[in-house]
Amino acid sequence: MDEVRYIQPRKAEQLLHATVQWLTRHGMSLMGSRVLYVRGRKSGELRSNPVNLMVFEGSQYLVAPRGTTQWVRNLRVAGEGELRVGRRVERFEPVELGDDEKPVLLREYLKRWKWEVGMFFDGVDATASDEKLREIAPGYPVFRILPAR
Which intervals of the chain form a coiled coil (predicted)? Predict the structure, then answer.
């Protein structure tokens, strides 16, 4: 089995995440920030994490720049989640994309948030070739967000 890519947050990053999450919970989205709520795959408890919601060509996406994080694993099992900004709640169903679909989305994600997430892309940026983005795609889960039925 291939090694699963995951970059654990450092203490300073945890503080930044907590700040972004607090602001977003109180209705202040920072460049598309949302608080993702998803049921824990083992505990069944609601878990939360700040994420960047990307809108591209009329669809919404979540990209996991740190790789196969706990929220990614939980979302895969739960098959549903919520994105919140303040009191606004958007229930959704995720559709995980295949690696061949990711290069254009990774490029767009890096255009918008490289200043925030570039350190997790090992020098790859929005100017990388499609081939390079396809090469790194397996390490970056991407979900299309569909309204909950």
Answer: none
